[in-house]
Amino acid sequence: MRSFSWTWLVGATLGIGAAQACGDTASDDGDCTVGSRGCACTTGGGCDPGLTCIDSLCILFGDDASASNSDPGTDSASNSGTDSASATDPSATTASSATNPTGADSTDATTDASDDGPLLDVGGADTGPPKSGCTAIDVLFVLDSSASMIEERQALAATNAFTQVITTLEGINGGGVDYRIGVTDDNDHGFFTPAGWLEPDPWFQSSELDVMEIAQAFNGAVGQIDAVPATPTGCEHVLTSATDLLVGDGTGFVRADALLVLVLVTDVDDYGAYDQVGGHSCPEFFPGCATPPSNTPEEIADILLNTVKGGLAGSVASIIVAGDPNVNGGVNFCSQPGSCGCNGVDCGVFHADRLWAFGAALGANGVVADLCNVTVPAAVQGAMDDDIDLACMTLEPEG
Q1: How far is it, in rounded angstroms, from Cα 365 to Cα 147?
Q2: If both were cysteines, with which of 71, 177, 345, 380 could 160 make a disulfide (CB 3.0 to 4.6 Å apart)?
Q3: Mean of per-residue pLDDT scores for the chain
Q4: 166-184 as b/e, with b when 16 or more CB fall inside 10 Å?
Q5: Phi, psi of 340 (to 5 degrees)
Q6: Per CATH, which fold does 136-394 belong to?
Q7: Per mean pLDDT, which range of 117-131, 261-275, 280-294, 306-320 is the poorest?
Q8: Where in the chain is the domain with CATH 3.40.50.410?
Q9: What is the value of pTM for the model shown?
């Protein structure tokens, strides 16, 4: 986040599995062929058909798979206010949960009844769309691209963790909602898709892809964020970047009758005042961001509701995972305020004043979680299960 070569390690919060998420580099090891049973996963987190990538190893689901509870971001000890059982144990999810994060083609996803593999019967076909409330949800994940957020991005994108987020999303409003998921960063680079993406739309659609395919696509898209130029120091702007993308978007990502959900994940603010020129005490080390925010958080909420969503009441929601500005965690050596991890030299997570104000502007639809006290996957899943579910149930699309 800062450019002073400081690093705040959040491995203890995310669980030691974060550094071993599926997708780490793998190679043939003697008689153990990459992607085969009991061997390392491929670079993209894939395995041979019917196998599951867990902690970088390909296993047949039904083997001794206790490692599935060590997926990054699901350490129950750090899940503040979330249901640790549903966040950590794949067996606690419904049958529609894809706990098989392989790179196999979807035609191979459903196994024979005599096999131990999971059945990926997804999509809510038995229930149909909800009879009231929203029947569609557009979710845009906006991820801070700075190096200090690598662990959080990897934890959220880990296939096993994200399938649980998707499973929760599929159960919203009783199940059967049509959802799409987009990925962008904090520096106006538009939608991210996996390398080699051939679909016509730059997002992942529930009516076109199954759970496993969406999780794999999300993982690949998040991985592409590391390849783009880093956001100028102090100019991180998840909220402004998302708003600019949606206002100028010509792809049709936002649907008129859908609930729009912004998932904003960062360890700083959106163009934070303490990051601006003159906003801190050591300009000789850090001049500051020369790009001030163009709109207040309240104005952004109004733009999203009235310009992007056409004024449909209750149609915009947010899940904000950032630093709580109400927590005095100290300051760094430039007197920039933090929520936690401050030692007089640096802070791990800085105050997100504008993001908290944006959440407040959305009322009950503005969900906030302190990055200091939660893991990102658990925070997103918990918000989906409670607040976003309620927002969907109470939304009444026009017509």
Answers
A1: 30
A2: 71
A3: 78
A4: bbbbbbbbbbbbbbbbbbb
A5: -165, 165
A6: Rossmann fold (3.40.50)
A7: 117-131
A8: 136-394
A9: 0.71
